[in-house]
Amino acid sequence: MKLLEVKGLKKYFPLTKGFFKKVVGYVRAVDDISFDIKQGETLALVGESGCGKTTTAKSILRAIDPTDGDVILHLDGKDVNIAKLSRDELKPYRRYMQMIFQNPYTSLNPRMKVKEIVGEPLLVNGIAKGKELEDRVAELLKAVGLRPEYMIRYPHAFSGGQRQRIVIARAIALRPKLVVCDEPTSALDVSIRAQILNLLMDLQEEFALTYLFITHDLSVVEHISDRVAVMYLGKIVELSSTEEIFENPKHPYTETLLRSVPKPDPDLREELVPIEGEVPNPANPPSGCYFHPRCPYAKSICKEEYPEFRNLGTEDNPHYVACHFAESLKLRGVKITL
Amino acid sequence: MDKTEELYLASEWKLMWWRFKKNKLAVIGMVILGILYVLGIFCEFFSPYDPNRIFARYVYAPPQKIHFFHEGKFIGPFVYGYKMERDPETFRRIYKEDKTKIYKIKLFVHGDKYKLWNTWESDVHFFGVEEGTIFLFGTDRLGRDVFSRILYGARISTTIGLVGVFLSMVLGIIIGGISGYYGGKIDNFIQRTIEFLISIPTIPLWMALAAALPRYWSQIKVYFAITVILSLIGWTGLARVVRSKFLSLKDEDFVVAARLAGASEWRIIFKHMLPSLTSHLIASATLSIPGMILGETGLSFLGLGLRPPAISWGVLLQEAQNIRTVALYPWLLIPGLFVIITVLCFNFVGDGLRDAADPYKT
Amino acid sequence: MEKVLEIRDLKVYFDLTEGTVKAVDGVSFDIRRGEILGLVGESGCGKSVTAQSILRILPKSARIVNGEIVFHRNGKTLDLTRLDPEGEEIRDIRGKDISMIFQEPMASFSPVYTVGAQMVEAILLHENISKEEARKRVVEMLKKVKIPNAEKVVDMYPFELSGGMLQRCMIAMAMSLNPTLLLADEPTTALDVTIQAQILYLMKELQKEYHSSILLITHDMGVVAQMADRVAVMYLGNIVETAEVFELFKNPLHPYTQALLRSIPKIGIRKTRLETIKGMVPDPYNLPTGCRFHNRCEKFMKGLCDVKEPPEVEVKPGHKVKCFLYGGEKE
């Protein structure tokens, strides 16, 4: 049961020069990507800085407007193309998609009490006010593990982990269907991350949520997601189930990511031979396959033609890759033990 | 409630106030300003004399010192009377302290009649002497009490800044807000206009506008016209600050979150964006008031702003425009001292507010 | 093995208006020649403050209340805590004998000077050579840290370079005078994962070549496992466990170390629920009595752990712990 279908999503930022702001080029932050998310699942969107994952999330949520493409939300029989609605038409559908932000220090208005922050979605959608609002906020705070009495405090009274819980409470206030989590634990201490990840997983079960989980931390991905999409410079280079991505990666970039993560086990101190080079400038991507300058397996065709994004798996268990040599490369993955 | 709990429940204003309190200079400045404003608002009550009352016998009299001891004995606060003498060479009047005339200073004395704010009649003054004279800052060329005139001047000089800044703020917030909120071409246009405006030299512009005011206008009309003139330039600074704040706030996470929750743009502007500005606006406004005060003082001093019989510190300083006056009757410069103190205090308070206005510092 | 730095019972307190924060409260460890010591802990545990104390770059509100930082140089020892923080002696040591690299490369370079100019300055502060000589050395160092087009990069401004490149420049600057000890404060935390791998690899190569010692400060257990020879685990101003790296990961003794290792999601191991460390890091103005970890510890022993602070016990040669589970009740 698909909840969200993204088709050909594009977000280009114009580059201007001069006094009259003439457009001289585009930064292709999100460059024609397509994927689906099934009801109740967690899809991880993985990549390094500049790959376009946050822009993708913001475009899907219409926090920014996409340049092109469709974002279809399936709601109890009705299909709505979020990308093509006007701002006014969009309003009644906002409640179905919410976001959890990365930085718990900038995502809460420091001048509002927790009660107002968590209650705002309910208030502006006319769902509750006054005493009823207070009760609902209390329930939400309890659901995320905070004491309801704390609702009279201001954000500065809370630690990073607690603030993130408040952000989560606000995000689920409207009982959304889709929650986009944008690096929700990156800014938190290691021992707090586990708490927040557990909380997210519990809430997913309790409220039947679907997550689009954005992160650069592969160990978290493996833990929380069902499927993974790997992004590089605005394009999805590989998309499959978590097990497949980790144990059987088919794109050289995925292999590199897996091998670059330092593992907390000194016995795995394999000779880290990292790949050379930096992520290229998205305003000026390389020709052909964007990864070719850094790819240890690149051949001449990689410089000329952008590879097709095709399914190397089965109908039921698809494994999409954009690489000319995906069939023949024998890439190293990481064995997953339960 | 223990200290930490108080801290957790403290709103941004409370936090700001606590931080502000720690700045001793700012608090002192605030207290002094408070005193000045009270004196100005109730100037009829606090001044011992009517500011226009002419004491023909005491023209250009120097300030009378307050003494507490007479011939070694403590008799409470008092002033000595004047003894007039003529300098044998210049034939000018010289005033000396006449130790035989003792005028005790009393509180709540009956004196010149007045109408507080043009409504309540009274004749009770905060302090004064029942007989004799008390010119704490001396008299001017018509024998008028400088101290009383300074207090009346306070009323105009300190409030003109407030009205001007208020107008500037309204203009600045609206124009700057539009510029920052919409961005793009509108922003570009407004910013270039602002740059053009601020490149016009202010003093000549003020002078030109002030000189253009019809001579026959009443002092009230002139007063308001001056404030409008002053604020016409003042708004640009605030507009730029507001604009840059709006630009950065538009993409702030909590604003995005509110938008995603379905909040209307009006709610976002008034509930999320503007409150983030208020503390900075207040600090900014406080720091612009001195400019207004100096502007009015300057214009009036040059004869282009308020004119007698209106009383402002600038008008008073007009009397001290020549070297002879400054050399012989230096107490006529005291209004200038008040201007300096007021401007300094506004700066201390404004700096204190600006330092206190950061919500991310705990 | 020969020691390069010995820290003995270091205490650094911060005097703030809200109270006194005992950021470092009795920390002792050594760093040996040619080794990488990982100093690991979460935010607020005092690891950065420890490093800043070594080079005496603490903020004004901090004071070294107790302890010695003994630096071994040319056969002689020198207690760094006795030096004037603005004096000539410590300035002589900074950059030459002990150098430091930081987390945010963009914030560590001045934006108004070229990268090369800043690196040349660093060299000229300690060596009496000509500017041209120094510049040549800078270009060599940049090549050593694998910066492409080193001759061009020398004249570039920090904003023109990416985070990864700047971090390499910072490493080049830090190593340009062949320091005995390099302090690295979260050097890769702000970098992307593939760039992090490059930087860590580079640091290991340089360390082997120059035979310098590194104090590697991080909160990432993966980085520690990859890089360190020995590890010291910090919690709220105390070192709770020190061991050789393989030993620590195979056989963690302190409940905090154990809990920390269990709560990290690791690649290759999929669990349904992550283990967490219960409770929260306490308020720094209101530290728990006795062992600072006792209110979050699974093996908490009432009457003992909340009353006395456990002394350090050497359970095996090279493996020390501060926990009553391993002895020390009598002292």
List keywords for this structure.
heterotrimer, A: 338 residues, alpha/beta, eight-stranded mixed beta sheet, four-stranded antiparallel beta sheet, 12 strands, 28% helix, C: alpha/beta, 11 helices, 25% strand, globular
Overview of this structure, please?
The complex is a heterotrimer of chains A (338), B (362) and C (331). Chain A has 338 residues and is α/β, with parallel strands linked by helices. Chain A has one domain: P-loop containing nucleotide triphosphate hydrolases (Rossmann fold, 3-Layer(aba) Sandwich), CATH 3.40.50. Helices cover 28% and strands 24% of the residues of chain A. Chain A has helices at residues 53-60, 87-90, 114-124, 130-143, 160-172, 190-207, 218-224, 242-247, 252-260, 300-304, and strands at residues 2-17, 22-38, 42-46, 68-75, 78-81, 97-100, 178-182, 210-215, 227-232, 235-241, 310-311, 320-321. In chain A, the strands form 2 sheets. An 8-stranded mixed β-sheet of chain A has the order 6-7-8-3-9-10-12-11, sandwiched between helices. In chain A, strands 2-1-4-5 form a 4-stranded antiparallel β-sheet. In chain A, helix 6 (190-207) links the parallel strand 7 and strand 8. In chain A, helix 3 (114-124) runs parallel beside helix 5, helix 4 (130-143) packs across helix 5 (160-172) and helix 5 packs parallel to helix 6. The longest helix of chain A is centred in the middle third of the chain and has 18 residues, at 190-207. Chain A is globular, with a radius of gyration of 21 Å. By secondary structure, chain B is an alpha+beta fold. Chain B folds into 2 domains: 12-16 and 28-41 and 152-356, MetI-like fold; 56-144, no CATH class. Chain B is built from 13 helices and 4 strands. In chain B, strands 1-2-3-4 form a 4-stranded antiparallel β-sheet. With 331 residues, chain C is of the alpha/beta class. Chain C is built from 11 helices and 12 strands. Chain C has helices spanning 47-54, 88-93, 105-108, 115-124, 131-144, 150-153, 163-175, 193-210, 221-227, 245-250, 255-263, and strands at 3-16, 19-32, 36-40, 62-73, 76-79, 98-101, 181-185, 213-218, 230-235, 238-244, 313-316, 319-321. An 8-stranded mixed β-sheet of chain C has the order 6-7-8-3-9-10-12-11, sandwiched between helices. The model of chain C has no long low-confidence stretch (mean pLDDT 90). Chains in contact: A-B, A-C.
